[in-house]
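Structure tokens please, single chain.
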Amino acid sequence: MTSQDSALPADDKIENWIRMARTGSTDAVGRLLETCRPYLLLVANEELPSELRGKVGASDLVQETCLRAHRNFDDFHDSHRAELVAWLRRILLNSLADVRRRYCATDKRQLAREINLPVDVALEALNVPAAEASPSSMVAAAEQDAALQDALNQLPEQYRQVVM
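Here you go.
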């Protein structure tokens, strides 16, 4: 366990939530996962290699872990905080292993094959000319112009000149 464990609620409260979760309380499962989220984020930040950080964030791993744990809570057979934390850590590490396989062990997505563009080329690519206006946006703009003209026509002459 880490110092992060001290931020978790007392053992008896967690064990009570585990009992409630076993009876089908999704609220209890949610509370368990939410209280463990900071610990899982700490583990994810420590375990996520720098070369994968451009592909997936630590919070993404935690989200995936919580989703898997919620979906498979019936697979958790213990009733203590330490076992719950260890179970969640194992799910997180399995999720990380899946990410590694996806981006490091496949030819198409191999990180070693990626080439970083120079900053000036990357910024140039962002300056994409605007597409032509769609027919609906042209109609909306015409309606807005007409409404503005009507509003200007309702103003006294002095005010209209100031606005113009």
